[in-house]
């Protein structure tokens, strides 16, 4: 059996009760933290809290050399952990399909996602979100600006009156000059706002920082204004709202300190 377990958003306690039980019952436990990570606990703290050994795999160890994970699942019960929800954004469908092809039973234990938390924290209604996008570091796509695909996604959603979740780039194990096992870099919301302000300087945006943590931050303002603020430790994301329902406008004012004049424009 191969059980995919979403750990939630913050620390070793954010996993669901079902996920905790499956994690502790597994014969071997694998994890990856290159697509996202828990902001309140590292792998050693997670392992100590749950009384298990965790084998952390890098991208190559999951995508190019999954055999140790699959062999463990074929011989017993294996768990595979990611932050958030293991099949949302940090998607590992390929690994699950490989297991199924080998006749290995699989199941998914879901965790809270950054997108659902963004809706909950901002008060923006979940069914009014359009396609999400990821804003990469400029060096990661070979340019110095916002990729056309990001601009197109946000514009298409805005034309339909929909909100856009903008995930911010994470680089673990690779940097500007190539592979680097010691490199960790997390785009912050002020940097992202500065990049997006080149396209939409006066557009309303909402920062969500450290969703799921005790000190989560939600802040709404013009992109140009957000670019001049600091929002503390990662992980961060941005939401670019579309048309606002009056309850959503009130929520941004009350929960994110948005200027009333801005949400009413």
Automatic annotation (TrEMBL):
One BP term from GO: protein histidyl modification to diphthamide
Residues annotated as domain Tetrapyrrole methylase: 1-226
GO MF annotations, alphabetized: diphthine synthase activity
Catalytic activity annotation: 2-[(3S)-amino-3-carboxypropyl]-L-histidyl-[translation elongation factor 2] + 3 S-adenosyl-L-methionine = diphthine-[translation elongation factor 2] + 3 S-adenosyl-L-homocysteine + 3 H(+)
Annotated positions binding S-adenosyl-L-methionine: 9, 85, 88, 113-114, 168, 211, 236
InterPro entries per the UniProt record, alphabetical: 4pyrrol_Mease, 4pyrrol_Methylase_sf, 4pyrrole_Mease_sub1, 4pyrrole_Mease_sub2, Dphthn_synthase
Top-level EC class: transferase
Pfam families with a match to the protein in the record: TP_methylase
Keyword list, A-Z: Methyltransferase, S-adenosyl-L-methionine, Transferase
PANTHER family according to UniProt: DIPHTHINE METHYL ESTER SYNTHASE (PTHR10882:SF0), DIPHTHINE SYNTHASE (PTHR10882)
Family: Belongs to the diphthine synthase family.
Protein name, per record: Diphthine synthase
Gene for this chain: dph5
């Amino acid at each position: 059996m191969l059980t995919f377990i979403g750990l939630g958003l913050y620390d070793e306690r954010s996993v669901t009760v079902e996920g905790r039980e499956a994690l502790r019952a597994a014969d071997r436990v694998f994890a990856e933290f290159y697509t996202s990570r828990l902001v309140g606990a590292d792998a050693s703290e997670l392992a100590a809290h749950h009384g298990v050994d965790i084998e952390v795999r890098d991208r190559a160890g999951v995508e190019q050399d999954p055999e140790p994970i699959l062999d463990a699942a074929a011989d017993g019960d294996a768990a595979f952990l990611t932050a958030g929800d293991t099949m949302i954004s940090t998607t590992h469908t390929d690994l699950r399909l490989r297991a199924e092809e080998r006749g290995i039973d699989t199941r998914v234990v879901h965790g809270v996602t950054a997108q659902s938390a963004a809706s909950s924290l901002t008060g923006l209604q979940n069914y009014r979100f359009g396609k999400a996008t990821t804003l990469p570091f400029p060096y990661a796509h070979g340019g110095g600006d916002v990729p056309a695909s990001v601009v197109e996604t946000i514009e298409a959603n805005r034309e339909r009156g929909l909100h856009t979740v903008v995930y911010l780039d994470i680089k673990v194990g690779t940097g500007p000059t190539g592979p680097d096992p010691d490199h960790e870099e997390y785009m912050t919301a002020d940097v992202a706002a500065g990049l997006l302000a080149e396209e939409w300087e006066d557009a309303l945006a909402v920062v969500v920082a450290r969703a799921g943590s005790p000190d989560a931050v939600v802040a709404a303002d013009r992109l140009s204004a957000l670019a001049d603020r600091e929002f503390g430790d990662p992980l961060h994301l941005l939401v670019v709202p579309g048309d606002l329902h009056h309850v959503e406008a009130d929520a941004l004012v009350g929960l994110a300190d948005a200027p009333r004049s801005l949400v009413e424009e």
